[in-house]
């Protein structure tokens, strides 16, 4: 069953996957709080990267404004929690329709009026920026003063209300990442996944093959938005504060896409691998510079940029397709 | 025989240029119908109008009893009218097999069943050995065959073929002619083709329409049409008859 699910990879690859899974499961017992926070960050980007990948990697629709779905998800759940004491899991049920509706509006405007490619990407940025400025002046969410979730010392982890220590958040985001992977895998190997790939490859040919491209592009945006909504809920309850300037910022949108780009757009493992490489690299650089007392402002960013540049130049399709060949895994061919 | 496809006074104008000028014809169910004519005669525009890639300025197009001239390309395909492109456009990054699976998924919701169907078509079009290859690595004749396979996979009643023989060697042309004849005979597939390769037209078509400057200048049985003075004058040339190509 598991072997079939992964499309028959080599035993070596399965072994590697098993070892990785076991390491991730026991991590909170061996890692200190700092390392655990880094791992949470990695998994957070692995999750959002997969959500973005559904839209761009599968259906070929470039979103540079995914922060809007994170922000909306975060604000809806945080607002319901702070105002009415509604638990985040219920809040998620409210956040999903909101983000889906937002995705539907963006998708409808773009796809009905033939906004495609770079212009579509600009439209997604415009919406995210619109949300950032709008929320900055929206009193119901405390405008630019920000929304804060009550932080108190909790005697025990409260999973239902997402109040607790990093280990609990770690397991929550780990489970979410695994679920997002399973969802991606199901979508990619199903009818809708094939239609998305066809649209990504050649939209005119896709229409000639009878595919209602408007409908399937809308589905890609709405599913991606729904998946991203949870990242927003998680963000709100993990950081306990929300500022429009931060959560809707365009750099948040860029951070989301870096992982899949480095790991391999349109692949299943790419976004996860990319998140590990990127956040791992950034944090390693951070510690290394601290360790050697190398305190040059901006040096980290420059070095980080150079590393990314090298990866993109050496492996333009991302790291995963290359690694998959090495491991003898078939995934990544599409 | 009833007409599966029927065009009435179809016209399309691009600014000053009348690409298709009041063209009318019927394609009977089960026929193989060829459209020939010199370059720029409006053949591909006519195809694009039928396939829903663009809408005509005037006239009506009826397919299987329904008006389709205002339908989108995907809706036309779902009604059972599949096309190939003159400048081939397979899904370049997908494997040969997956290209055809996409087509087969139109009528078949189950991916495994669609794959089964796709593999059968690939066998029929001599692409089975190359099914794992990425489509962009295929040679032009193979890509043309792949387009036919993908179009067939959508389960059409009428297949529109835009110069699928161009660039094929004579033996490959004969092979394609055989494949199309078989599809026509065994499944009752109606075929409408644009073709320059007269060898294929004469072997396949039961009826021929000649376009010149957007106008239909002749229509009828292939043997009669190629002797029509207007057709010889505008398209085939005197040497065609003298060479005894018939």
Number of domains of chain A: 1
The CATH homologous superfamily of the largest domain in chain B is termed P-loop containing nucleotide triphosphate hydrolases
SSE string of chain A, helices as H and strands as E:
HHHHHHEHHHHEHHHHH
Largest sheet of chain A: 2 strands, antiparallel
Strand order of the largest sheet of chain A: 1-2
- The total of beta strands of chain A comes to 2
Q: Quickly count the domains of chain B.
A: 2
**Pairing-aware structural class of the strands and helices of chain A?**
mainly alpha
Largest interface: A-B, 22 and 32 residues
Instruction: Give the helix proportion of chain B (percent range).
Output: 25-40%
Q: Which term fits the overall shape of chain A?
A: globular
Strand percentage of chain B: 25-35%
| CATH topology type of the largest domain in chain B | Rossmann fold
Structure in words:
The complex is a heterodimer of chains A (334) and B (246). Chain A is an all-alpha fold and 334 residues long. Chain A has one domain (2-327). Helices cover 73% and strands 1% of the residues of chain A. Chain A is built from 15 helices and two strands. Chain A is globular. The relative contact order of chain A is 0.18. Chain B has two domains: 1-80 and 157-246, Rossmann fold (3-Layer(aba) Sandwich); 86-155, no CATH class. Chain B has a six-stranded mixed β-sheet with strand order 6-7-8-3-9-10, with helices on both faces. In chain B, strands 2-1-4-5 form a four-stranded antiparallel β-sheet, covered by helices on one side. In chain B, strand 9 (207-212) and strand 10 (215-220) form a beta hairpin. The longest helix of chain B has 18 residues, at 170-187. The model of chain B has no long low-confidence stretch (mean pLDDT 90). The chains are: A mainly alpha (334), B alpha/beta (246).
């Amino acid at each position: 069953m598991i072997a079939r699910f992964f499309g028959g990879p080599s035993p070596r690859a399965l072994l590697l996957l098993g070892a990785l899974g076991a390491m991730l499961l026991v991590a909170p017992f061996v890692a200190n709080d700092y390392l655990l926070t880094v791992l949470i960050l990695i998994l957070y980007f692995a999750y959002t990267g997969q959500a973005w990948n559904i839209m761009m990697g599968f259906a070929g629709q470039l979103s540079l404004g995914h922060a809007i779905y994170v922000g909306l998800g975060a604000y809806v759940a945080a607002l319901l929690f702070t105002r009415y004491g509604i638990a985040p899991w219920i809040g998620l049920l409210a956040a999903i329709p909101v983000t889906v509706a937002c995705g539907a509006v963006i998708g409808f405007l773009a796809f009905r009026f033939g906004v495609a490619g770079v212009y579509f990407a600009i439209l997604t940025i415009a919406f995210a920026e619109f949300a950032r400025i709008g929320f900055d002046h929206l009193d119901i969410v405390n405008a630019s003063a920000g929304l804060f979730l009550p932080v108190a010392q909790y005697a025990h982890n409260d999973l239902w209300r997402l109040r607790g220590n990093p280990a609990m958040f770690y397991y929550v985001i780990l489970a979410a990442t695994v679920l997002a992977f399973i969802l991606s895998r199901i979508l990619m190997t199903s009818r809708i996944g094939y239609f998305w790939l066809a649209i990504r490859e050649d939209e005119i040919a896709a229409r000639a093959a009878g595919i209602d491209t408007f409908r399937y592009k809308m589905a890609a945006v709405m599913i991606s938005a729904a998946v991203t909504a949870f990242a927003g809920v998680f963000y709100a309850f993990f950081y306990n504060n929300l500022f429009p300037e931060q959560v809707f910022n365009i750099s948040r949108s860029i951070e989301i896409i870096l992982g899949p780009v480095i790991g391999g757009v349109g692949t299943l493992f790419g976004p996860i691998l990319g998140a590990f490489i990127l956040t791992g690299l950034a944090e390693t650089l951070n510690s290394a510079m601290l360790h050697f007392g190398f305190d040059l402002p901006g040096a980290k960013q420059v070095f980080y940029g150079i590393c990314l540049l090298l990866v993109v130049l050496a492996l333009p399709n991302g790291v995963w397709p290359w690694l998959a060949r090495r491991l003898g895994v078939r995934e990544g061919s599409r | 025989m009833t007409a599966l496809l029927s065009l009435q006074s179809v016209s399309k104008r691009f600014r000053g240029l009348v690409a298709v000028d009041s063209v009318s014809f019927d394609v009977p169910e089960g026929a193989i119908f060829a459209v020939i004519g010199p370059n720029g005669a409006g053949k591909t525009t006519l195809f694009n109008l039928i396939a829903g890639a663009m809408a005509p300025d005037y006239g009506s197009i009826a397919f299987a009893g329904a008006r389709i001239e205002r339908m989108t390309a995907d809706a036309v395909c779902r009604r059972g009218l599949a096309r190939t492109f003159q400048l081939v456009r397979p899904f370049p990054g997908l494997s040969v097999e997956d290209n055809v699976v996409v087509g087969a998924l139109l009528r078949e919701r189950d991916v495994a069943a669609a794959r089964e169907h796709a593999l059968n078509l690939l066998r029929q079009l001599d692409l089975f050995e190359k099914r794992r290859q990425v489509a962009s690595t295929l040679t032009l004749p193979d890509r043309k065959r792949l387009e036919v396979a993908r179009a067939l996979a959508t389960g059409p009643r009428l297949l529109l073929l835009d110069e699928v023989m161009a660039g094929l060697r004579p033996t490959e042309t004969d092979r394609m002619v055989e494949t199309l004849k078989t599809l026509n005979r065994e499944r009752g597939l109606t075929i409408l083709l644009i073709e320059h390769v007269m060898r294929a037209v004469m072997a396949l078509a039961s009826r021929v329409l000649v376009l010149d400057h957007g106008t239909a200048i002749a229509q009828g049985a292939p043997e009669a049409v190629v002797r029509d003075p207007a057709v010889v004058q505008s398209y085939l040339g005197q040497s065609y008859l003298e060479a005894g190509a018939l």
